[in-house]
Amino acid sequence: MPKQKAYYIIDFDSTFTQVEALDELARISLKKHPEKELIFQKIEDYTNLAMEGKLSFSESLAQRVKLLEANEEHLKQLIKHLKKKVSTSFSRNADFFKKHADEVLIVSGGFKEFITPVVSQYHIKKENIYANTFVTTGDGKIIDYDHANPLSEEGGKVKLLQHLKLEGELFGIGDGYSDFQLRESGLINKFFAFTENIARQTIIEKADHITPSFDEFLYVNNLPRAISYPKNRILTLVIGDVDPKSIALLKNDGLSIRHKTSFEEKYVKDVGVILLADGEKLSKEQLKAAVKLKTIGYLGNTKGKIDTDLCTKMGIVVFDDPKNNPRNIDFVPKRMIDFMNTGATYLSSNFPNLQLPKIDKSHRLIHIHKNVPGIMAKINTVFAKHNINIVGQFLMTNAEIGYAITDINTEYDKQLFKSLKKIEQTIKFRVLY
Q1: Phi, then psi, of 111 in degrees rounded to 5
Q2: What is the predicted pLDDT for the residue at 412?
Q3: Whose CB has fewer CB within 10 Å in the chain, the N or C terminal residue?
Q4: What residues contact residue 233 under an 8 Å CB cut-off, 6+ apart?
Q5: Are 272 and 250 spatial neighbours (Cβ–Cβ below 8 Å)?
């Protein structure tokens, strides 16, 4: 039997973009209004009541449009703002939208006037954008919306999909009640609660799957994506009294954070990233058991606190701040993020220092090995056997280890990874993107 065609039904506000567009439009249109804070609050309340299913969508929409007092000039400013507010994991996966332009639908209770210019940059077809439209006066004032549009009504997304009669496997991605209604009505196969920007508990409880990023959605559905392994699946421990700014940097990069006062045994086997406050210690036993650990950030000097030689032998990249520079609040987390995203070990205290450009349209493989003669020849023999074309290769060594980065520009089979892992003297291997 041929595989069913898949369709991806994606919400706009707080999903494709990080914000609620009508709330943002209010901030622009009411900028000089004496009671703006009070009106903002009312608009936000109407949004949330509808999103949580506590107020009908049509009632919420009517009230918000009335309060806006917006015009076409305000709309132009909004569009400029929204283009900068596309959700990080969506903008990272622009290629997916290009390849699947026929199967991606934007279905929103928002308005075409601001949605179309934003999503069109991502190769989403105008005819696949379903949203409301404003009614304006001759001089460009927004006074109402088209009440005949099913998307302006309660259960509008359900009505629209009933009308579209799409044949195939339908996936819904969104953050609100109207997105879940599609699943409840049986019109879509699976509903993914998108929580990168906002997590509504009432919606999370009803979802088939929680997707903290678009990478996660692509990963679980085995679809092509910009990064091989979603960052939200990488357990990141923050230990001790760490400045919230340091934690925010890691969180904003999409890592899944647990902030603890000590390194609890239950996390040792699964932790991928650790950030430690100055004065905290890691024992040799804990390090040896942390088999998935890729990088450690230390907000101070590691001397006497962490065995960096053991880290090197295990292929764990350490970033610390031996001089206790006040900059270390963001200096150390930024280095860790750079390593996780590009493989750069620049300013690491135990690894050969390597600064790396991110190369588009290629896969980046990291191979950490003992520094013994002939190992690069073995690595490249594996690539040759699999007919892999190498785009770029970077190697740095110290007395202990070799750190090799290879960018390849082809589709690969999983066997390639197994062969690279099997090379004698391999310490760690991973696919970055």
Answers
A1: -125, 135
A2: 79
A3: N
A4: 216, 219, 256
A5: no
Residue 254, by phi and psi: left (phi above 0), alpha (psi -120 to 50) or beta? left
Q: Which two tokens stand for residue 245?
A: 């700014």
Residue 1 has pLDDT above 60, yes or no: no
Residue with tokens 């969506």: 90
- The listed CATH number (3.40.50.720, 3.10.25.10, 3.20.20.70, 3.40.630.30) that belongs to domain 231-342: 3.40.50.720
Residue 2 has what pLDDT? 58
CA separation for the pair 368, 2 (Å, rounded): 42
How far is residue 247's CA from residue 237's CA, in Å, rounded to a whole number? 10
CA dist list (Å): 311 to 209, 282, 428? 36, 11, 12
Per-residue pLDDT, averaged over 375-394, amounts to 94
Query: What confidence category does residue 4 fall into, taking pLDDT thresholds of 50, 70 and 90?
Result: confident
Is the sign of the CA dihedral 201, 203, 207, 212 positive or negative? negative
- Between 325 and 101, residue with greater pLDDT: 101
Q: Indicate the length of the chain as a whole number.
A: 433
Same fold flag, 6-220 and 363-431: no
Q: Which of 91, 81, 80, 111 is nearest to 12 (CA)?
A: 111
Which pLDDT does position 338 carry in this prediction? 94
Please tell me the pTM assigned to this model: 0.85
The Cα 101–Cα 393 span in angstroms is 33
In contact, 191 and 181? CB cutoff 8 Å? no
Q: Structure tokens of 372?
A: 């013994």
Asked if the model's pLDDT at residue 56 lies above 90, the reply is no
Domain 363-431 homologous superfamily, CATH: ACT domain (3.30.70.260)
pLDDT computed for residue 433 by the predictor: 87
Write out the two tokens for 413.
């089979």
Domain boundaries, the chain: 6-220, 231-342, 363-431
| Mean pLDDT confidence for 192-205 | 94
CATH topology of domain 6-220: Rossmann fold (3.40.50)
Contact 100, 8 (CB under 8 A): yes
Pair 170, 188: CB distance under 8 Å: yes
Mean pLDDT of all residues belonging to the chain: 93
Distances from the Cα of 25 to the Cα of 37, 120, 141, 365, angstroms: 14, 20, 13, 44
Bridge partners of residue 71, in order along the sequence: 141
Q: Is the pLDDT of residue 81 over 60?
A: yes
Q: For residue 241, which phi and psi values (nearest 5 degrees)? A: -85, 85
Q: Residue 192 has what DSSP assignment? A: E
Residue 325 has a pLDDT of 77
